[in-house]
Amino acid sequence: MPFLLVLLVAVASLGLGGYSAWATLTLEIGAALLLVTVLNRRPREPGASRSRTEPHPASGLRVPLALLTLWIGLSLVPIPRSMLRVLTPRAFSLRAEVETLEEGTGFGEWGAPLSLSPYLTAESAWLWLAVLALFVVSLRIAAHPKEVRRLSVLLLVLGAGFGAFGLGQWLALVAQAPPRAPNALRLGAFAAFGNRNHYAAFLEMLFLPSLGWLGYEWLRWKPGHRGLLRKSSTPSQEAGARLVLAGAATTLTGLAILFSLSRSAVAFTLAGSAFWAWTTRSLSHQHNDGFVDVGTTRKRRSYAPALVLALIVLGSAVFLGLEPVMERYQLVTEELRAERGRWQVWKDSMGAVRDFWATGSGLATFSKVFPIHRTFGGTTLYSWAHNDYLQLLIELGLPGALLLVWVALGAVRAAKRVHQDALANPPIAALHAGYGAGLLAIALHSATDFGLHLPANAALASILLGVTLGMKPHPLSSA
């Protein structure tokens, strides 16, 4: 099951990050099939799952997720003109103008839905259902230690593969246009995504769970642990080899993020890494019975591999050439002040918030309402607000935004509960912190971009969320 889950995300990623029609369709059909398969699987041993009397940490998300799905669906239901005029006067006036210009296109026999573009909203609603399905699937996978381990390794491999793809692409571009060339800032790894920022957002969600896996392997690799892993023993050597391979794979992913030239991704990957290091700062080696080995004078802290990894990534980046990366950061102030920059887009979007705060304009309809409030000229089109939170406030209105806040708070509460339980098993706690750090990074990144509107990124985020809320602290022997 983990293999099919990661394969589905990989296939979607190859189609412009899921934007291609075939990639989106593959993701939606695959998510439905995986959900049916998981729901029809026989439950395993009672000891492998949470007690039926104990509520699952993610159970608090059922109500807000159901209400949010219902709210999206209601925006597609036609309502009478009189009700539409009361609920959303701006949408009513826009439809009336359209009907004046072209008879029969503003309202139907039964009125009109709240969404200004029912087709776009319905298209996005299907993707939302697919993301929910993947969340449920990953939640079930997280209940079993072996499947979590397989999933973590597969995500590590996926990150290394796409990292190598993008890094090779960047090196080829640099060979054609040296870093000092006038078009050097147009360089940047983007792999099959077509957009370096979306590609980097995808990789940052893979890098941080990989960092968690590195910490997991590090904490399990302890010479003298129960007399099994000695420096000269075969198990110790195998564990050390796994650690080196995991470090190399994670390094590839980190370098690809750096050379995507996505400033937000680099900044938020660093923020996620700092969060992971802080969360795991007190973890040390423990025996299988859950007690700290107080006899060990030198304790390997879980963040040690992160420091080594950072030095390797930085050294490799210096070797490959950091000029284009540094030049990108020097343009931050200039781009913020630009007439058509993101800051101006956010300011202009506030007019749409005032118009559609009560009901929203409909999922995926930002491109239909933003031109009304746009204050700058030029040919640049903005189909997205480059701020997912602002855009969703416009498209879903205040009720939808409050439901999203409910979901977010419930997820944070559940994740904290799972992490507290996992502290009894430091390697699992380090792994869990990696998944949580990946979610934090993409949550921060969504404030400056629209990476989660990409099907592949949304699917990957739902998987991280499912594992973060569903992981359980198992003994080292079984994990």
Outline the fold blueprint.
Blueprint: H1 2-14, H2 21-39, H3 62-74, H4 81-87, H5 89-101, H6 118-141, H7 145-176, H8 196-220, H9 234-258, H10 263-279, H11 304-320, H12 323-330, H13 332-337, H14 342-356, H15 366-373, H16 388-422, H17 426-445, H18 455-470
Helix pairs in contact: 1-2, 1-7, 1-18, 2-6, 3-16, 4-5, 6-18, 7-8, 7-9, 8-9, 8-10, 8-17, 8-18, 9-11, 10-17, 14-15, 14-16, 16-17, 16-18, 17-18
Short description:
This protein has 479 residues and is an all-alpha fold.
Written overview of the protein:
There is one protein chain. By secondary structure, the chain is an all-alpha fold. The protein has one domain (about 1-40, about 60-75, about 120-335, about 385-470). It contains 18 helices and no strands. Helix 3 runs antiparallel to helix 16, helix 6 (about 120-140) packs parallel to helix 18 and helix 8 packs parallel to helix 10. It starts with a helix and ends in a 9-residue tail after the last helix. The model is unreliable at about 45-50, about 180-185, about 225-230 and about 285-300 (pLDDT under 50).
User: What order do the SSEs take from the amino end to the carboxyl end, as H and E?
Assistant: HHHHHHHHHHHHHHHHHH
Shape: globular
- Distance from N terminus to C terminus (CA atoms, Å) equals 17 Å
The percentage of residues in β strands lies in under 5%
| Overall mean pLDDT | 80
Properties at a glance:
mainly alpha
